[in-house]
Amino acid sequence: MGNTYVQVLTLTNVQPEPVEIVGVHHDLNPGLRIEVVPVEKGRVYQLRAVMEAQTPGKSTGHIVLSLKGGRVPSLELMGYVHVWERAEQGRKPEKTG
Questions:
Q1: Phi-psi region of 70 (alpha: psi -120 to 50; beta: other; left: phi over 0)
Q2: Per-residue pLDDT tens for 4-26?
Q3: CATH: 2.30.30, 2.40.128, 2.60.40, 3.40.30. Which one for 4-83?
């Protein structure tokens, strides 16, 4: 099995009224899981993008957060996932030239 990779993005609400993230959807790599972690409910949230290493490839798409409270019903972010190919463990790089 491969490794688990995690990236964290912190979002801060600066509106006067509290805003809750009540849902998250994306059209990126199907192996990507996005977790919403409230740091300060209504004000500060972390989005944790979690992915198990898979077949190498790239994916660009959207992450849509459904919101409750505030001035807008949703927030759309652009996302990019790149799974790099790794050399096999213990394999030495081939010499060239």
A1: left
A2: 888 899 999 999 999 999 999 99
A3: 2.60.40
